[in-house]
Specification:
315 residues, mainly alpha
């Protein structure tokens, strides 16, 4: 990024911190009794617990970078440190900027300069899409392998009764636009699709797919272990099955980012899931808040490390 872009990025991070502080102040003022009860159980988290969770959260970012790196076409594979730098900074940006701006940054930062004709911005977008598919697939495998869906079948009903109507409407819209717009630009669209599909190509490589899925599984297991550590120190040790139930509810709640750093939906969804598993509300809120806070802190630690790696490389 240019000096101007760096300055803009840090300004936005500062604004994000201010907004987080404002939200926490509002919560403390409006829900004083619940907030005080949650604060009363915070001392149960030891420094050892907090350190372990931060380490696990940082390890999760590293595994994400390796998963993404493994999906690169072998002929264009960059150094792992470059991918880690882009991934860590991108995840930090995703936590504070709207519309998944961090994902755009990842692709932009890893696009070769000067651009290569057989490895473009769209190719990297395809790799990012493949990465998301591998991430989702591994998560679904884990929640079914551990039987987490049995905790609450209703929480896994992702599609409403009218979903098929929206899908059908989208198909009809594309068919209607085809003779009006798409056919005219088909040659250009075909080139774009070719570049994009090149990024998905490595999903057809058994070795690369297996390795990327393995690291995707590690990403989710590490987050589940972090949650397990926090619950252990509140004298309510969660099973791995229960951890993945909580993560399922959480990821459904934050699928569409509607607040800075997902503050609100993140804590509410974890607290809801933990309360459903039998935890007192104040304990559930404490675990949710600390889990989110340490995750954001880990983004900053790995983001700073990624920025330092990028800085050292460019000097």
């Amino acid at each position: 990024m240019s000096e101007k872009s760096n300055k803009s990025f840090y300004i936005r991070l500062a604004i994000g911190f201010i907004l987080i502080g404002a939200v926490l102040f509002g919560l403390a003022k409006g829900q004083k009794e619940s907030f005080e009860k949650a604060l009363s159980v915070l001392p149960n988290f030891s420094y050892q617990c907090l350190g372990i969770v931060i380490l696990l959260d940082c390890l999760q970012i590293f595994f994400m970078a390796v998963r993404f790196w493994l999906l690169y076409p072998k002929a264009h594979r960059t150094e792992l440190r470059n991918v880690f730098s882009a991934m860590s900074i991108g995840q930090t940006m995703n936590a504070f900027l709207p519309a998944r701006a961090g994902d755009v940054y990842k692709v932009a930062a890893l696009t070769p300069t000067p651009p290569k004709p057989d490895f473009t911005f769209l190719t990297l977008t395809g790799i990012l899409t493949a990465d998301k598919l591998v991430d989702l697939s591994s998560f679904l495998v884990l929640i079914f392998a551990f039987g987490s869906y049995r905790e609450s079948y209703e929480s896994l009903q992702l599609f409403g009764p009218n979903t098929w109507k929206w899908i059908l409407g989208l198909v009809l819209l594309v068919l209607a636009l085809w003779p009006l717009c798409l056919k005219k630009y088909w040659a250009k669209i075909k080139t774009w699709l070719t570049d994009f599909l090149l990024g998905l190509k490595n999903l057809l490589s058994p070795k690369q797919l297996f390795l990327s899925l393995s690291f995707a599984v590690l990403v989710w297991l590490v987050e589940a272990w972090a949650l397990q550590q926090l619950s252990l120190y509140q004298n309510f040790p969660l099973t791995i099955t229960q951890c993945f139930f909580v993560l399922t509810v959480l990821n459904l709640a934050i699928a569409i980012p509607i607040s800075v750093a997902n503050i609100g939906p993140f804590e509410a969804s974890i607290a809801f899931a933990l309360k459903k598993l039998g935890l007192p509300l104040e304990t559930a809120l404490a675990i949710a808040t600390v889990h989110h806070g340490l995750q954001v802190l880990s983004y900053f630690i790995t983001g700073a490390l990624g920025w330092l790696i990028k800085r050292i490389k460019t000097t």
